[in-house]
Amino acid sequence: MSYQPHGKHLIAGDRIASEPGWASSPSSGPSHRFSTGSPALIAQACEAAERAFWSFGYSSRAERAALLHAIADAIEARGPQITEIGCQESGLPAARLEGERGRTTGQLRLFADHILKGDYLDRRVDAALPHRQPAPRPELRMMQRPIGPVAVFGASNFPLAFSVAGGDTAAALAAGCPVVVKGHSAHPGTGEIVAEAIAEAVAAQGMDPGVFSLVQGGKRDVGEALVQDPRIRAVGFTGSLTGGRALFDLCARRPDPIPFFGELGSVNPMFLLPSAMAARGEAIAQGWAGSLSMGAGQFCTNPGIAVMIEGPEAQAFSDAARVALGAVGPQVMLTDGIADAYRKGRDRVRGSAGVRELLTSVCDRRNATPYLYEVSGDDWLANHALGEEVFGPLGMIVTVRDAGQMEQIARALDGQLTCTLHLDEGDTALARRLMPVLERKAGRLLANGFPTGVEVCDAMVHGGPYPASTNFGATSVGTLSIRRFLRPVCYQNLPEALLPADLA
Ligand code: NAP
């Protein structure tokens, strides 16, 4: 049976309605009305989260692991309903929503296993040296502790894996931090049904209901109030550079600034080195076209720029990419706003000096079709805006004079989530030259692959220097992401009876 959203906020287990309501804009299926969030509702959710922290922050790892498993089970129990409403709201196909649900429950369970192992606590003990001269040393113990209530903002392009029960929520709950989610206006019904699953699991585990709340949006002051609430200790955000930067600035301007972990946009450049281009340039072009147009190009890891040395191989590459992208039909975008922004981005690129359009199409209403452009290394270097993300299936080939100019392009890049090298053995010397530059630019470096598809595992880094993220020391995907919601506490000379159970 289809899920019928009640349209209310879910604050500490209670369904709360508020006026005025707003109507969702699904790409298909019925529109529903949702309550509008407000600063007062945010305050209510944050108060409940702060109250819950006094028990949840001191719960055992086994209790929190059980909660994470229970949330995964409750999401799976609603699987077909989540897929149906998720497809309607986002325009994404069912297979994608199903895959994303598996990823979401998989990461909840991964965090359960991760905290049970205990390594994340990073426990350290410096034994007392009572006879040390000239001064004795007391015993010092250190452990990571949860920081308190965490605010979460999901992105429109991952209505499950980067949303209400996504990586930020999973990491925060695993750490022992209650979560207040600001619902995304692009998928409010999907957010609601997932929130219901979390609230059910919290209740079934006998935990304080303030451990989790969802406040729907509808107005910008909802998110602004959330990041400024004095009880919130950190923010996990996935979304646009503009939105992320506005909220980051609000966090920094608080009387007590808090960390804002924003995962923002990226153009994910690929560097195509000469031997690889000669051996398999056309195959790489076809792979690129697939990666670039997958999900209407609405991935933060979309490889928007391909850098290569000018010549016949570059020509063959662009011919093959044009053919492959030309065969991709129109795809529905996530929201009308994202489709508008895509067209604006296209117009900006199209109107830039030296840019040649290799593939054009009609892209109207909420549909996206691919575009392909080419620009010389000189013109790209002269126009910093050509390195900015266009969210959608738009590719740009940058043809450089030589290896030296390729390195110049690498040096001119802003921070990235990923950088990719396509190389063969004969390219090793040039790749070695690029590596130290690329390592300073990106959170993840790839060889001979495409960056779309982010593995959820221990070694993953999904982050990077600004503007890819607002905190280059962090990742929003993988088990290391739990560190964002922990802080080290040192216990000096404390009697055993006062130490946290995990440290005693
Ligand atoms: P978005 O428009 O920035 O929205 C994200 C959230 O922030 C929404 O809840 C939105 O509220 C809120 N928001 C945006 N601007 C705000 C402001 N000025 N004040 C208060 N709240 C604000 O992002 P999106 O369109 O959902 O996501 C697409 C972008 O996310 C792309 O650029 C993509 O590259 C990036 N992305 C990054 C990653 C990553 O891991 N780095 C992953 C996925 C996507 P409303 O609901 O009211 O709009």
From TrEMBL:
<dbReference type="InterPro" id="IPR050740">
    <property type="entry name" value="Aldehyde_DH_Superfamily"/>
</dbReference>
<feature type="region of interest" description="Disordered">
    <location>
        <begin position="1"/>
        <end position="36"/>
    </location>
</feature>
<dbReference type="InterPro" id="IPR016161">
    <property type="entry name" value="Ald_DH/histidinol_DH"/>
</dbReference>
<keyword id="KW-0560">Oxidoreductase</keyword>
<feature type="domain" description="Aldehyde dehydrogenase">
    <location>
        <begin position="33"/>
        <end position="304"/>
    </location>
</feature>
<protein>
    <submittedName>
        <fullName>Aldehyde dehydrogenase (NADP(+))</fullName>
    </submittedName>
</protein>
<dbReference type="GO" id="GO:0016620">
    <property type="term" value="F:oxidoreductase activity, acting on the aldehyde or oxo group of donors, NAD or NADP as acceptor"/>
</dbReference>
<dbReference type="InterPro" id="IPR016162">
    <property type="entry name" value="Ald_DH_N"/>
</dbReference>
<dbReference type="InterPro" id="IPR015590">
    <property type="entry name" value="Aldehyde_DH_dom"/>
</dbReference>
<dbReference type="InterPro" id="IPR044151">
    <property type="entry name" value="ALDH_KGSADH"/>
</dbReference>
<dbReference type="Pfam" id="PF00171">
    <property type="entry name" value="Aldedh"/>
</dbReference>
<feature type="compositionally biased region" description="Low complexity">
    <location>
        <begin position="18"/>
        <end position="31"/>
    </location>
</feature>
